[in-house]
Amino acid sequence: MASDETRKIALVTGGNRGLGKDMALSLAKAGMDVVLTFNSNQAEGEAVADEVRGLGVRAAALRFDLTDIAAIDGFIDRLKGVLEGAFGGAQRIDFLVNNAGIGKAMPIDQLTETDFDTFANVHFKGVLFLTQKALRMMNDGGGVVFITAAADRYCVPGYGLYAACKGAIEVFSRYVAKEYGARGIRSNTLAPGGVATDFAGGAIRNNPMLQEMVVAQTAMGRLAEPHDIGGLVSLLCSDDARWLTGQRLEATGGFNI
Ligand SMILES: NC(=O)c1ccc[n+]([C@@H]2O[C@H](COP(=O)([O-])OP(=O)(O)OC[C@H]3O[C@@H](n4cnc5c(N)ncnc54)[C@H](OP(=O)(O)O)[C@@H]3O)[C@@H](O)[C@H]2O)c1
User: Fold this and answer.
1) Quick one: average pLDDT of 51-66?
2) Which residue's C-alpha comes closest to atom 46 of ligand 1?
3) Which of 7, 130, 200, 243 could form a disulfide with 103 if both were Cys (CB 3.0 to 4.6 A apart)?
């Protein structure tokens, strides 16, 4: 394990539950300090931070709401405060994992402008401006991982707005790779398929018929676990992935191939 002074620091949005929780724990197991964010579930966020600290690294949980674009600067100030305090005077981070997100089946005909603004803020505008500001305080040699969705390759009826926002971020990620590569900063997108979390009101978790359909079309013949995704994030944030940038990796166990 690296010393307090040399350990890398990762910021994981939406790290209090679901895929983000496993990402935070996977990064900690790989020896990184972790700042995770929650939106509404503070107790869960603090509990995950405790679990991360139990692995021998530093951790903090901060509130962060992707729908409140004007508050991103305030969040960055609070992040800097945590780094200077609980993280022993650190000034910068090494990795940003843009994981937080929402999902809901919304047929195109029923979409409203409010739906558009909410999804565009959470999955595109908020992610873009958080990334811009995080890059200003990122060490050279760091990286960004954007969690997108396999559903921007194949179509799941009702998820057009969601998938279009994820697709936009995949394009943005390549531009981050291009503009920041000279600093050794890498940018990649990881696109999971369905995982049985709270996502979209537990759409997969609560629907055995949907689970059967997913398993039947998955080459590896099972449903994904959060750790199938968290482990890959940890790999993308490791030195072993140092030559990988501007890429979209799809993590579905071979769904619909
Ligand atoms: N699960 C899947 O099937 C699946 C498939 C493909 C892609 N993904 C993507 O994977 C990511 C994580 O999904 P998940 O399955 O872990 O979902 P989840 O279990 O529903 O967790 C969502 C996370 O996002 C946070 N969040 C929600 N709204 C937010 C907002 N306005 N601002 C900031 N944070 C917010 C939540 O915080 P609180 O708990 O505090 O509200 C929570 O930590 C998402 O980007 C999702 O699009 C998921």
Assistant:
1) 98
2) 101
3) 200
